[in-house]
């Protein structure tokens, strides 16, 4: 999801002074001493501007209505923009009643999955396997990677902030205007959403971890020793395309496909190294995917604890419940300016969006609406790339019988904020992260060996605890650079960042900041 200033401003808005290196993955991290430190949580005031009945540019028109039971609620009214394609019809009218019944059963069974990748599975629930599989996009980025062997499943959701489709093509101009997120050259290929979901063998205690985009990690395979984890994809993609071009490959489609696969492989490795657990499947979507799923559902309901007003993203909402159109929903998940916890609050927005989509997918109104189901199928076809070998339909059927239960979204902890080489970063403790994730995923955690440097103090060590459990894979790393750690230690850290409470599925719409 969104990351740097280009993602959070329209083309006509003034650009912040600081520019992220992620705009150009091939460019070295700047070393000019002009730090633009992000405000600390205790310095940052939460936005609480009273709603004036409007939403930011291109985000639509907002109208609040009184709430039931005395609670302030808001509903948004917006004319949906023209979709770039007509809803697809299956062509098998006689099979619709049976398929609709199958959709209802599979939707209820796959509820835990829809919380993270609602738009991935819902189309599969509606369409027959032979019809649906033909249009899916697949990637072999997981080829040769370690997998779980204990019956559990770890699924990584990769969200790119690119303004291109899954094949690297520019989005239509009318869609770009609705996204309110710059042009096709904005955003690059940052992975601003990384969510690792664990489904244990007994299908209980489902947990998903969001990985903050600015977490500083070791990058031994890149041209820099450390980088934000969201930059691994784009930097690897650019380096791979340069190498292929030097080998004489000039076809843009080939370069795009191979570059993206390399970026996926590198991102998967980075997440595996950070968390110490294998990744069994992944699904990748771009910025347009979040927009399209909201549009396919006819809007998404969200709840805000406080009023917000942000000209950069176009998010301008009062406190309480709102039903957001597609463009408003995108502004909701993109906002980071004016929030108490900044990007960590935006992470909670993304989690709440997914749980809201789940809540809506479970509703009878969605499961009996042929048009919505067809539109959800189109989202899967057009916006999602799956790991090779993932039979989504069979997998959804295998989830039959999974109880409707709580799904917990956690956020990986951050030790402190820092400025490294003029870049805002999150200093993390990889050893503590591995221990927390492995414990949450039910993996026995071995006590880490004493290190010559305290990772939580230096911010540069990436030595991880290993695990002997057959269902996990621990990939130790080497601390081969201390430059970033030294810069980080010199920064005035302030209090440790507060990741906020977990966002939990309780069958209702969660309220977030």
From TrEMBL:
InterPro entries the record matches: LytR/CpsA/Psr_CW_biosynth (IPR050922), LytR_CpsA_psr (IPR004474)
Entry-linked Pfam families: LytR_cpsA_psr (PF03816)
Membrane-traversing stretches: 106-129
Keyword presence, Transmembrane: yes
Protein name: Cell envelope-related transcriptional attenuator
UniProt keyword Transmembrane, yes or no: yes
Keyword field: Membrane, Transmembrane, Transmembrane helix
Entry-linked PANTHER family: POLYISOPRENYL-TEICHOIC ACID--PEPTIDOGLYCAN TEICHOIC ACID TRANSFERASE TAGU (PTHR33392:SF6)
Biased composition (Low complexity): 446-472, 483-502
Listed Basic and acidic residues bias regions: 35-45
Gene3D superfamilies: LCP protein
Domain Cell envelope-related transcriptional attenuator positions: 190-362
Family listed: Belongs to the LytR/CpsA/Psr (LCP) family.
Residue segments, region Disordered: 1-99, 446-513
Species for this entry: Gordonia polyisoprenivorans (strain DSM 44266 / VH2)
């Amino acid at each position: 999801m969104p990351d740097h200033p280009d993602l959070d401003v329209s083309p006509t808005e003034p650009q912040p002074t600081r520019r992220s290196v992620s705009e150009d993955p091939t460019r070295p991290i700047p070393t000019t001493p002009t730090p633009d430190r992000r405000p600390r949580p205790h310095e940052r005031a939460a936005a609480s501007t009273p709603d004036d009945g409007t939403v930011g540019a291109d985000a639509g028109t907002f109208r609040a209505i009184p709430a039931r039971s005395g609670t302030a609620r808001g509903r948004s009214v917006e004319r949906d923009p023209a979709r770039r394609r007509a809803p697809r019809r299956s062509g098998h009218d006689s099979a619709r009643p049976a398929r609709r019944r199958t959709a209802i059963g599979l939707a209820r069974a796959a509820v835990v999955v829809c919380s993270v990748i609602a738009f991935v599975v819902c189309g599969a629930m509606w369409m027959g396997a032979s019809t649906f599989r033909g249009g899916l996009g697949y990637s072999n980025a997981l080829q040769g990677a370690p997998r779980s062997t204990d019956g559990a499943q770890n699924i990584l959701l990769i969200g790119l902030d690119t303004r291109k489709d899954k094949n690297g093509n520019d989005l239509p101009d009318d869609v770009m205007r609705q996204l309110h997120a710059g042009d096709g050259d904005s955003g690059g290929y940052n992975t601003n959403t990384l969510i690792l979901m664990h489904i244990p063998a007994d299908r209980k205690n489902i947990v998903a971890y969001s990985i903050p985009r600015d977490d500083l990690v070791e990058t031994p395979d890149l041209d820099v020793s450390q980088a934000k984890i969201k930059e691994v994809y784009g930097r690897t993609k650019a380096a791979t395309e340069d190498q292929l071009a030097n080998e004489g490959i000039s076809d843009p489609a080939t370069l795009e496909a191979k570059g993206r696969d390399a970026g996926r492989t590198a991102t998967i490795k980075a997440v595996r190294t950070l968390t110490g657990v294998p990744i069994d499947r992944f699904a990748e979507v771009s910025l347009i995917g979040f927009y399209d799923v909201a549009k396919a559902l006819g809007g998404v309901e969200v709840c805000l604890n406080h009023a917000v007003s942000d000209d950069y993203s176009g998010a301008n909402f009062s406190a309480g419940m709102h039903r957001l159109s597609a463009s408003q929903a995108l502004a909701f998940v993109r906002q980071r300016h004016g929030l108490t916890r900044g990007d960590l609050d935006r992470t909670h927005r993304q989690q709440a969006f997914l749980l809201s989509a789940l809540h809506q997918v479970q509703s009878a109104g969605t499961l009996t609406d042929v048009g919505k189901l067809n539109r959800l199928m189109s989202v899967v076809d057009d916006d999602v790339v799956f790991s090779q070998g993932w039979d989504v339909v069979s997998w959804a059927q295998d989830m039959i019988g999974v109880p409707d239960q709580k799904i917990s979204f956690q956020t990986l902890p951050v030790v402190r904020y820092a400025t490294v080489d003029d870049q805002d970063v999150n200093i993390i403790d990889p050893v503590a992260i591995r221990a927390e994730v492995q414990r949450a995923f039910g993996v026995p955690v071995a006590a880490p060996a004493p290190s010559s440097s305290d990772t939580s103090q230096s911010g540069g060590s990436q030595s991880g605890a290993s695990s002997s459990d057959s269902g996990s894979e621990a990939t130790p790393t080497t601390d081969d650079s201390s430059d970033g750690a030294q810069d980080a230690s010199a920064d005035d850290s302030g209090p440790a960042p507060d990741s906020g409470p977990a966002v939990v599925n309780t069958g209702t719409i969660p309220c977030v900041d």
